[in-house]
Amino acid sequence: MEIGTPLLEGSKKLMLLGSGELGKEIAIEAQRMGIEVVAVDRYDMAPAMHVAHRKYVIDMMDPSALKSIVKRENPDGIITEIEAINTDALIDLEDSGYKIIPNAQAVKICMNRIELRRLAAEKLKVPTTTYAFAESAEEVRKACRDIGFPCLIKPEMSSSGHGHVLINKEDEIEDAYKESISHARGKSKRVIVEEYVKIDTELTILTYRYNTGNGIVTKTFPPVEHQRPSYYYVESWQPATVQDDVVEKAKSYAIKVVEELGGVGIFGVEIIKSGNRVLFSEVSPRPHDTGMVTMASQDISEFQVHVRSALGLPTPEVRLLTPAASHVILAEREEWNPKYLNLEKALEIPGVQVRLFGKPYSYEKRRMGVVLANGSTVEEAKEKARKAAALILVE
Ligand SMILES: Nc1ncnc2c1ncn2[C@@H]1O[C@H](COP(=O)(O)OP(=O)(O)O)[C@@H](O)[C@H]1O
Ligand SMILES: [Mg+2]
Predict the structure, then answer these.
(1) Protein fold of 199-319
(2) 322-395, superfamily in CATH?
């Protein structure tokens, strides 16, 4: 394989559809490899745009906008970094010869909770929570009766916990359904109704595929463990503290689902452990937010692996080097041009690193940065990451 020189004839070019914090790290890894990077998002000054050669601000739900910049740039690979992208346009682009990472169909399935459940639970028979699909309050009622209370409803399409509503009893159903679909992406009225399980812990099995030149192989990272006080990401760590048999099960489900989705690149397979049940939950066809910890824990991060796979390059193995943790830095309120205070205090803690994403504006609970910390144990790493994150203020 040949890599040319960025900005000159023969350069290898990657286009990022979505330029958030994960995209920024992908862009940095691509830059390190001498790749020309084009960052796209719906707003200007998005994180990856700060480290790309060029940027475009477009509505990625608009098929003609998407196609016209792809045709203008003619990238060697298109990396989808967010879910809110017109997937039919991606399929058309793939049909006309563009390389979508991991592949257009996988992106379409993973953004849709119903399609993904059909694939994982019904086709592949991978264990999941008990669930039903519904498209009216009446159908939710029927599903709740079958599944039992409490149950959790989620819109067919949404991300970061948007539209997740817990239903404890019969008379909450009507409002819960309305509330849930009001947070849906797009016009769909469909929801998934899931049994609400008591979570002991959650794992992300980062699973990647690359072309060896002699076929595609599927491999996994050591598991990342995380805990959420709510439906969004707060902290994650490696190594995971679960038993080997849980890891083995989790990895086998991850490999099964990812092999079915196909293509190349990294996937974040979310696994829930509840009592002695190990359940597949969902999968991102891209690096995962909980996997930011791999920047501190491993010799090769999830971002580097994704770039290599996208370029057709191998990663025969990744190694865990040290216990590490990551912890988010959240904003408290809406603000243009936010300022960050107390970095000097946070960085006084040995083994701590800070990544600030450079988002041009904040709102309540928006993720603005992340602390990475390593330690001699997971507990020590977590403690340092929490402490440092608490010191940093966003104003
Ligand atoms: N059936 C469930 N029972 C209990 N908690 C759940 C259930 N489904 C999801 N969760 C919790 O909510 C989080 C977000 O749910 P998920 O389905 O991953 O949605 P999102 O696409 O918003 O990440 C999970 O990581 C888990 O902590
Ligand atoms: Mg999730």
Answers:
(1) D-amino Acid Aminotransferase; Chain A, domain 1 (3.30.470)
(2) ATP-grasp fold, B domain (3.30.470.20)
Which among 250, 149, 132, 264 is positioned nearest to 197, based on CA atoms? Answer: 149
* E strand or H helix at 86: none
Structure-token pair, residue 249 = 């099960």
Count, residues in the chain: 395
The alpha carbon torsion through 91, 97, 103, 105 (nearest 10 deg) reads: 30
Say how many Å lie between the CA of residue 383 and the centre of ligand 2. Answer: 24
CA 289 to the chain's CA centroid: 5
d(CA 343, CA 70): 39
- Give, using CA atoms, the residue closest to atom 19 of ligand 1: 161
Q: Is 159 a catalytic residue?
A: yes
The predicted-structure confidence for 4-29, as pLDDT tens digits, reads as follows 999 999 999 999 999 999 999 999 99
Mutate to test the pocket of ligand 1, among 164, 165, 269, 290 (most ligand atoms within 8 A of CB): 164
Instruction: Give the ranges where 208-336 is alpha helix by DSSP (H).
Output: 244-261, 294-297, 302-311
Q: What is the pTM of this model?
A: 0.97
Which amino acid, residue 364?
E
Report pLDDT for 294.
98
